[in-house]
Amino acid sequence: MNRTDRLYAIVEDLRARAPRLCTARELAERYEVSIRTIERDINALQQGGVPIYADVGRRGGYALDKSMSLPPLNFTAAESVALAVALHRSLDAPFAQAGRSALGKILAGLPERDAAAARDLAARVGMIDNCDPPAAPMIPPLVEQAVRTRRVLEFDYRDRFGTGTRRRVEPVLLLHGFESWYLAGWCLLRDAARSFRVDRMTDIALTDEARPPRSLDSCDFDIPEEKLRLVAFG
Question: Taking the complete model, does pTM exceed 0.85, yes or no?
Answer without folding.
Answer: no
